[in-house]
Amino acid sequence: MQPCCRPGRCDSDPARVDGVGGSADRACSHRRRWVCRSCMQSSMRSTAGACTLPILLEAGRTLWEADAIARRLSHHARSDFWRTGGDVEPDMIRWLSWGKENFMRACDIVHFERGTKQRYGLGPIDPARVEQGLNRFRVAAAILEAGVSGREWLVGDSVSYADFRMATFLPFNDVARLPLDDYPSIGRWYHQLEELDAWRYPFKELDAPELPPIPAGRVTARAGLPQEP
Question: pLDDT of 117-175, one tens digit each?
């Protein structure tokens, strides 16, 4: 079982197919191999129908999309990281579905403008899109605030994939500058995630590159102030 991670670096421009760290080590052989990027892309198109990552390679078959892969790895490791059965699995699916279309979508809109576009030189910040994202964030954050108020985690009494998925963009909030301080329960919930090694070091034992820095002096289109690092 081998999750495809990211393009690697060598003279033949390879792509690395690697195991993953943390608890998922128990769910895969942690073998490593190198394949030509063009061959991998050809394989990805033929097996997954699109040249996108992540893809899980397992016994001659493939599984693509992060949520499906997380479900498979959790089942293979006999872990409750992905909740199943009874009332907990519908609750799990509810948070995944709602989070992707609401909370995460709002975070994504703002982070793309303030972070991604600035890191990769994709143009100036669009103030209208930032405002749209912030408006959506306030609506979604109010719902999530109520959801985590009085409880440690989103589903059950321990961390689950729903928590990891919901917080996808929050490690980059130094750049996105979403108003998390306005939502104390979300802040407390996310602080718990930050205390987990598996969350703080997702690429442990993998040759993963650092994100490109945002160039010094790049300014926000709206405020005209230096962009935060």
Answer: 999 999 999 999 999 999 999 999 999 999 999 999 999 999 999 999 999 999 999 99
CATH topology for 88-200 is Glutathione S-transferase Yfyf (Class Pi); Chain A, domain 2 (1.20.1050)
Closest by CA position to 179, among listed 135, 210, 146:
135
The values of phi and psi at residue 3, to 5°, are -75, 135
CATH 1.20.1050.10 domain locations along the chain: 88-200
Question: How far is it, in rounded angstroms, from Cα 120 to Cα 101?
Answer: 25
By CB atoms closer than 10 A (0-12, 13-18, 19+), residue 160 is buried
pLDDT digits (tens, 9 = 90+) for 73-112: 888 888 889 999 888 999 999 999 999 999 999 999 999 9
Q: What is the bridge-based pairing of β-strands 33-36 and 2-7? A: unpaired
* 144 neighbors 186 (Cβ within 8 angstroms): yes
Please tell me the distance from the alpha carbon of residue 130 to that of residue 40, in angstroms, as a whole number.
Answer: 36
pLDDT confidence of residue 19? 31
Residue in the structure block whose two tokens are 């006999």: 78
Burial of 100 (0-12, 13-18, 19+ CB in 10 A): middle
Asked if residue 15 lies in contact with residue 37, where contact means CB atoms within 8 angstroms, the answer is: yes
Buried residues in 14-53 as b, exposed as e (16+ CB within 10 A): bbbbbbbbbebeebbeeeeeebeeeebeebbeeebeeeeb
* Cross-strand pairs, 2: 57
